[in-house]
Write a structure and sequence with these properties.
Length: 372
C-alpha cells in the first residue's frame, strides 16, 4: 500500500469536483506538499549527455512520480494542440487559450504556492495520467503529479504561459553545460519563478529542451505589462540543427507586427504557412490564427473579456481525427500582478469545457470558484 506523508494526504483530500457533466469534468486541488522541481530536472539530466543521450518519456514520467508520490508512474505526454493569444482593453491584459486534443479528458485546476516562489493557478489534462473520473484512490494519488503536467497557467507576477504543438521533429538539445528540462516541467519552472515574459525566456534558455510525447512544441508567454513572447527551437540550417529563439514580433512578407497569437505553426516561419494546409514541418493552424486576429481588428485592438470569449469560440475545434481537433477547455487569464507576488494573489481565470460556452466557471484565488 502506498504510504503518503501528511502534506500529500492533505493534497489528495483537497481534490473536489467543480462540474457534473456525464463523463468528463473539471476538478480542483490545492498542492500542499513542498515539491522539488530541481530534483526532477537533476534526475532526468543524468540521462542526457551529448555523446550518449538516453532520456525518454518513461524516464521523465518515473522522475515526476518519484517526486510526487515516491514511486514510478506513467504519464502519456500527448500532442498538445491549441490556440493562445493576447488581448488588451483599457490597459487590462488577458490571455485566451483553447486546449485542443482529439482524446477527451477531464481537467484539473491546480493551485500551487511554493515557499519563496510565485503562487499560481494552472490546468492539467487528467487523461494524461489515466485519472479522468477520480472515483478511486489510484486516480486521486496520481493527481499528486499535477503540478508537473500543467499545460497552461498564470502566476502571481501576472505571467501566463501555454504550450502548443508543432509538426516538426521533437527538439532534444544536448549541451553538456546545461541541465535538461521537459515540456511540461518548463511550464512549472516559468510559473514558479518568472517575474515577466523576458524573465520566463531567460529561465527556458538556461536549459536543454527535451520535447515529450514524440512531438515538437513552442510556448506562448504573456505578462502583466502586455509583453508577449513565443519561444521556439527553430531550424537554423539544412543539417537539422535547432536554435532557441524568443520571438516578440511577427515578420511576415517584409512587414513587422506585434506578436499577439500563436497556434500550431512556427511564428518564425509564418511566410511559409498558409491557412487550411499542413505546410510540412512548418506547421498548421493559420486559419485559427487569422480568426483571432480578425476579431482583434474588428474591435480596433480594444478587446475586453467578451471579445476574448468571442475569439475562443471562433478558434475552437470540433472533434476529429487530427491531434489538434476537439477543444477540451477554453480559458481566459487576467494578467494581474499582485502587490506581493510571492504570496497568494487575486488570480482570475474563467473556464469552459468542451465548447459549452453557455456554462462558464470563474476562479478567484481569494474567493474560490463559482459558476458564472
Amino acid at each position: 500500500m502506498l504510504k503518503l506523508d501528511d502534506e500529500r494526504k492533505s493534497t489528495v483530500n483537497s481534490i473536489k469536483p467543480v462540474t457534473d457533466y456525464a463523463n468528463y469534468n473539471l476538478f480542483q486541488m490545492d498542492i500542499r506538499y513542498e515539491y522539488n522541481l530541481i530534483q526532477i530536472i537533476n534526475e532526468i539530466s543524468t540521462y542526457n549527455h551529448s555523446e550518449h543521450p538516453i532520456l525518454n518519456d518513461q524516464i521523465v514520467s518515473a522522475a515526476i512520480f518519484r517526486e510526487a508520490m515516491g514511486i514510478p508512474g506513467k504519464i502519456d505526454f500527448n500532442s498538445f494542440g491549441c490556440t493562445a493569444f493576447k488581448m488588451v482593453d483599457n490597459n487590462t491584459v488577458r490571455m485566451g487559450r483553447n486546449y485542443d486534443f482529439k482524446n477527451d479528458t477531464s481537467c484539473m485546476l491546480v493551485k500551487c504556492h511554493p515557499k519563496g516562489m510565485h503562487s499560481s493557478v494552472a490546468f492539467a489534462a487528467l487523461d494524461n495520467i489515466h485519472a479522468n473520473h477520480l472515483d478511486n484512490n489510484y486516480e486521486k494519488y496520481a493527481c499528486l503529479a499535477a503540478p508537473f503536467i500543467c499545460l497552461d497557467g498564470i502566476n502571481s507576477a501576472g505571467v501566463s504561459i501555454a504550450v502548443l504543438t508543432l509538426d516538426s521533429e521533437p527538439v532534444f538539445e544536448h549541451d553538456d553545460n546545461k541541465s535538461t528540462i521537459a515540456t511540461t516541467l518548463a511550464i512549472r519552472a516559468v510559473l514558479d519563478e518568472a517575474d515577466s515574459a523576458d524573465h520566463a525566456v531567460r529561465i527556458l534558455e538556461r536549459y536543454n529542451m527535451y520535447a515529450t510525447g514524440g512531438r515538437d512544441y513552442h510556448f506562448f508567454i504573456l505578462d502583466a505589462d502586455g509583453n508577449c513572447r513565443v519561444v521556439e527551437y527553430i531550424y537554423d540550417d539544412e543539417s537539422g540543427n535547432r536554435t532557441f529563439k524568443s520571438i516578440y514580433e511577427v515578420k511576415s512578407y517584409g512587414h513587422k507586427e506585434e506578436l499577439q497569437c500563436a497556434t500550431n505553426f512556427f511564428i518564425n516561419y509564418i511566410d511559409k504557412v498558409a491557412p487550411g494546409k499542413k505546410n510540412g514541418i512548418y506547421g498548421h493552424g493559420k486559419d485559427r490564427y487569422n480568426a483571432v486576429l480578425d476579431i482583434i481588428d474588428k474591435h480596433n485592438n480594444n478587446c475586453g473579456n467578451d471579445e476574448v470569449w468571442e475569439a475562443l469560440k471562433a478558434s475552437a475545434q470540433l472533434p476529429g481525427d487530427d491531434a489538434t481537433s476537439n477543444t477540451q477547455w477554453s480559458v481566459v487569464y487576467e494578467n494581474i500582478s499582485a502587490l506581493n507576488p510571492f504570496s497568494d494573489f487575486n488570480a482570475t481565470a474563467q473556464i469552459a469545457l468542451k465548447r459549452d460556452f453557455r456554462n462558464k466557471w470563474s476562479y478567484d484565488s481569494l474567493k474560490g470558484i463559482r459558476k458564472l
